[in-house]
Structures are given as structure tokens and as C-alpha cells.
Amino acid sequence: MTQPPRVPAASVERVLCVLAHPDDVDFGSAGTVATWTAAGTEVVYCIVTDGDAGGFDETPRDQMGPLRQAEQRAAAAAVGVSDVRFLGYPDGRLELTLDLRRDISRVIRQVRPQRVLTTSPERFWDRIGASHPDHMTVGESTLRAVYPDARNPFAFPELLADEGLDAWTVSEVWLGASPRADHAVDVTDVLDRKLAALHCHVTQVSHNPDVDRFVTGWMRQTASRFGLPEGRLAEAFHVVSTA
């Protein structure tokens, strides 16, 4: 029997966004983040890599990571986020490891969010570009950190014994780029903030003069798919109860 879509919590105090690369959150979720911060929700970004394998020019690899960190901090500020944390894993080479689960669990216990936003660990066959291996690895690692690691005081006991980080239970997870998306956020009124965040990623989008049209068209299709009025724009997620 098909279950009805989960209704997300009406409001939460803290959200943690865990993504693989600088710009991932901005392409898929920056409009949603802008609506949350405008409502007074504290949002923290945890970016697993520095994005050092990205870019479209001859920027030396040892310079790309710091550049992309700076771009992500500027993009975060454009949508009201001031706390951006980088885990420093190698771009393009992420694997599902206990170390990665521990490091994401650490941030969950530090931030103590009611909601976590990450990427879906499922491959999206209709949009293969959404299923970058790093994205899927971070999605699966984050879900494993949410359950059971972060809430279990006996998982990674060094987090409690050495760092004083008590266990924490996340109530819900929002999965972006999911083939099971069941919830849309109307972001029409914060379009300017989303595009401003995207344009902060100069190393990633400056080569593409059509990025605004592409992203806006994508969100228009999403809004139509979820039955929003004509002319509206939306971002979509699969909402999972994890309490």
C-alpha cells in the first residue's frame, strides 16, 4: 500500500545541510534555504570536499580548493547562512567509510539540528547528472550518520568521551535530487537570492551564460509537476521521518 507523502515539520530551529561539493546546495536547495533563514531558522552548511576537482579553466589544483571555499561562503551569505564547515575530503574520490560517517556524526552532534538536508543516495536514472558518485556517497553516509550513529551514544564513543558531544536524534531528513521527491517548496519570491548565490560560484558557472535560464526553467518544471500555479518556481525533496 502506497503511503501518503510525509508532511514536514511546520518550523524547526536548526537545519544542517550536508553536501559533497561547494555549489551543490546552491543549485538544488538555495531557494529553500533562503525561505528557512527568512523565517528565522538557523542553517549550517557542512561541505564534505573543497571541490578541488572542479572548474573549467587552468586554475592550479592547489588554488581551486581555497577558491571554492571562498565562493561557498559568499554564496551562503547570499541566502542568510554564516556557518559553513568543510571536512576536507578529496573531491571525486569519496567512499562510504566509517571515518566519513564519524565526521558527519560529529557535526550533527555539534549543531543538533531537527532537520538535515542532503542528497539522495539513490541513482536518478532520468537525470544521471544528479547521481554524481560523491553525491550518492554523501547522501548514504549522512543517512547512516543520522541513523544510527549520531543518536547512539555507543557509536563512535570517542565523540562523547574525548569531545563531550552527546548523542542527538534528527527528526527528519530532506533528500534532494531524489527520484522519490514528494514535497515542493515554492521559491519564486527568493529567486534573486538563489541566483545571487549561484553566481558566487565563479569558477563553476562563469563559463555558462545560460545558467539563469537553465536553473529557472528547471524550477518552473518542478513547480508544474507539483501542481503549483503557472509562473511559480519550486525546489523538490523527498522528506523522510527519522525520529
CATH C-level category: Alpha Beta
CATH architecture: 3-Layer(aba) Sandwich
CATH fold group? Rossmann fold
Number of contiguous helices: 8
Please give the alpha-carbon distance between the first and last residues.
Answer: 22 Å
- Which structural category fits the helices and strands? alpha/beta
Question: What would you call the shape?
Answer: globular
Order of helices and strands: EHEHEHEHHEEHHHE
Record field, number of beta strands: 7
Strand content: 15-25%
Q: Tell me the helix content.
A: 25-40%
| Radius of gyration, CA atoms, in whole angstroms | 17 Å
Number of domains: 1
Description:
With 243 residues, the chain is α/β, with parallel strands linked by helices. It has a single domain, classed as Rossmann fold (3-Layer(aba) Sandwich), CATH 3.40.50. The protein has helices spanning 24-38, 61-78, 98-111, 133-149, 158-161, 191-199, 202-205, 211-225, and strands at residues 14-19, 42-49, 83-89, 115-119, 172-176, 183-186, 234-241. A seven-stranded mixed sheet has the order 3-2-1-4-5-7-6, sandwiched between helices. The longest helix has 18 residues, at 61-78. The protein is globular and about 50 Å long.
Write the layout of secondary structure elements.
Blueprint (H helix, E strand, L loop, with lengths): L13 E6 L4 H15 L3 E8 L11 H18 L4 E7 L8 H14 L3 E5 L13 H17 L8 H4 L10 E5 L6 E4 L4 H9 L2 H4 L5 H15 L8 E8 L2
Attribute tags:
single chain, 243 residues, Rossmann fold, 7-stranded mixed sheet, 8 helices, 40% helix
